[in-house]
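Q: Could you fold this chain for me?
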Amino acid sequence: MTVTDLARDTSTDSDTGDLRSRILTIAERLFRDMGYRKTTVADIAAALRMSPGNVYRFFPSKKALNEAVAERMLAQIEAELGRIVRETGTPARERLRRLVRTMHSMSAGQFTANRRMHDMVEVAMAESWEVIHGHIGRVEDLLVALVAEGAREGEFRVADPRAAARCVQTAIVRFCHPALIAQCADREQPTVDEMIDFLLTGLRAEG
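A: Sure. Below is the predicted structure, expressed as structure tokens.
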């Protein structure tokens, strides 16, 4: 997809649409097509038929724009995980299985399948962007809520739901971290379902 194609696509947007969201949408598309390192603010502005100064009104630097794109992509994962955690009528153990599977599939789909996006997120993690720390913390909170509910319902036997949630989160890093997903793809490793079974055995209440 060329910059001209993107501009044509963007021209159909409502004039009253959220400009910041439009900037992020175009930035993400260009990052996927060209790579975030090669994409400039001028490229994004050209696709939106505006001056670079208008982009800088919302994002003071290219780094801030990179972080905002990463944050929006991670928020999509968090939203889906939140829906799973908040489901009613489904045992916690089943929701935990779905949560881990979803984290793995969405992380692989968004960040690993596209090498250019993989590079952006890998740099974000290496440089400890604040959005990555925030994402890790919010996923931890979702796991805590789910483990605590399972403990209340007698599905899990844990003394400290947060400590247990952190153990789960640490155990599944290999299935969620873009670099580890890529590096372990061709190695003989436990499958995501084998790891989930192992974790559920550790969490399950006795008897």
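A (continued): Residues 3-58 form a domain with the Arc Repressor Mutant, subunit A fold (CATH 1.10.10.60).
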